[in-house]
Amino acid sequence: MEIQQPRGQQSIEQPRPEMKIDRELPKVIIDQYQCFAEMGLKNPTDLAKEISNWSRKKWLEGLARRREEGDRMARIEKGGNPIPEMAREKLNHQYQFNVDFIPKSRPKIEVTGHLNIEWDIKKPIINYKPNKPIVDYTPGYVDIYVEQWPDIEIRYVDERI
């Protein structure tokens, strides 16, 4: 008996993967308005509002001071010397000096943009065709023959011993 196994037929194909890229170019926005405003560099609208508020505050303070000075001068008959006292107060005004670091705020930084990569990976295509084994079988044979046929020969001899 003889057996042969031929190799199977195989083919493998790998489709290319697909890559999809979605991106938005980066954009950096740096807002330093608050930093510049703390240094006194404001836009005209905000500067006008600030000066207007400061002027109103100073006007009200001056109005209150003049009213108080008028009241002191109206009570001059009760004694004291209000005019030299008021002059002395204005001359002895002490100014405060201070050291400060600016800006105190940090700039606002905004970064936009994205990068998104998606892969579509394809599975391999595998085809396989097995081949059947080749079996060569020659059945055995038996040759039966008789080389010598059995025989028995019987003779009768009339002799006495």
Characterize the structure shown.
This protein is α+β, with helices and mostly antiparallel strands and 161 residues long. The chain has a domain at 16-121. The protein has helices at residues 33-38, 44-74, 82-91, and strands at 2-4, 9-13, 18-31, 108-120, 125-129, 134-136. The strands form three sheets. Strands 1-6 form a two-stranded antiparallel ribbon. It has a two-stranded antiparallel ribbon with strand order 2-5. It has a two-stranded antiparallel sheet with strand order 3-4. The radius of gyration is 60 Å and the shape is rod-shaped. The mean pLDDT is 89.
Strand count, sense and closure of the main sheet? 2 strands, antiparallel
Principal-axis shape: rod-shaped
Helix and strand sequence: EEEHHHEEE
**Number of distinct helices:** 3
Essential attributes:
161 residues; alpha+beta; two-stranded antiparallel sheet; two-stranded antiparallel ribbon; 3 helices; 6 strands
Task: Map the helices and strands.
Blueprint: E1 2-4, E2 9-13, E3 18-31, H1 33-38, H2 44-74, H3 82-91, E4 108-120, E5 125-129, E6 134-136
Antiparallel strand pairs: 1-6, 2-5, 3-4
Tell me briefly what this model is.
With 161 residues, this protein is of the alpha+beta class. It has three helices and six strands, in the order E-E-E-H-H-H-E-E-E.
